[in-house]
Amino acid sequence: MISNFILNLYRFTFIPETSINMPRFNKGNVLRGAFGSSLKHIVCAISGQECGNCLLKEKCAYTLIFNPIGLGPAKRLQNTPRGFVVKPPLETDTEYSSIKPLFFEMVLIGDRINYLPYVLVALMELGKYGIGENRGKFKIGDISILKGGNSEPIYDPATNTVRNLSYSITGNEIIEYARGLKPSGITLQFLTPTRIKYNPTGEKGKSEVVRVPEFHHLIRRLRDRANALATTYCGGPLNIDFKGIAERAKTGKTKEINLIWIEKRRHKRNEPYYHDQSGFIGSITFEGNLTEFLPLLVLGEYIHVGEDAVFGNGWYKIIN
């Protein structure tokens, strides 16, 4: 099902030189936006040019990583997903200092793993300009690659060098891990607001926001997101019965619900309106014969589910 998938999971440590003031919530929005601005600053060759009209877009690291609209296999997709996911700090602290560094994680997917050097340079340059509400400056203290509960440092701040360490998480490894999970019941703990839409009729424009998801709602969105990412960055679409898996997911039954709805908005730069990022957090337990769906659910821990996953929304953990 997901055997062609591959990803890397990194953890970054920002050590503030004075202090960094971050919002109580929405830290993923800040990290994602600051990373994009820094990346564009260091690689954009034609200032002021719209990416979609730029002659260099198919070779530009900013377009390939951060704004991949209409590129390569993505031309066949209505909404091209970005090949990275920010996993923001979950604590509600608002101030970081040299004795309380800022930690966050980032996933790079498929061939975008090869663009890690651009990610690193963009984050290092960002440290010079600052981040957060006070533009707090920082240095990179540590970069580690994570896998299976283990971490390996790949960056030496003393020499400013990075190790090229192959420590990828493959689709086959995810499938193997999923085989060890209990197939008759699973609990998902949603860590960040998760916003899922479902179209019960299939008519255009009839999608509705789901406040309490059914099992098939999650599987449909995971299926579509994983397939879009695999098509764009992992060499081809998933080998999956698209309609069948959604229908079979309807057999998954909800056993217990402990969800709350979080109101969350993001102000879009240079736009007069706000983007609604509201969603549910908390836990929900499903039961049934879930064996077929477990690999997708495990993959979803890395790639998230629902809208605005790249910001860190839709992040959940499996409790089995």
Task: Provide structural commentary.
- It is a single chain.
- By secondary structure, the chain is of the alpha+beta class.
- The protein has helices spanning 27-43, 61-66, 116-129, 171-179, 215-233, 242-248, 294-303; strands at 6-16, 19-21, 84-87, 95-97, 102-109, 138-147, 150-153, 155-156, 161-162, 169-170, 185-194, 196-198, 208-210, 253-262, 265-267, 274-276, 279-287, 316-319.
- The strands form six sheets. Strands 1, 3, 5, 6, 7 and 10 form a six-stranded antiparallel beta sheet that branches. A four-stranded antiparallel beta sheet has the order 14-17-11-18.
- A hairpin with a 2-residue loop joins strand 6 (138-147) and strand 7.
- Helix 5 crosses helix 7.
- It is globular, with a radius of gyration of 20 Å.
- The two termini are 21 Å apart.
Summarize the biggest pleated sheet: 6 strands, antiparallel
Number of domains: 2
| Shape summary | globular
Known CATH architecture of the largest domain = 2-Layer Sandwich
Strand content: 25-35%
Mean pLDDT: 92
The total of helices stands at: 7
What brief labels describe this structure?
Alpha-Beta Plaits, alpha+beta, 320 residues, four-stranded antiparallel β-sheet, 2 domains, 29% strand
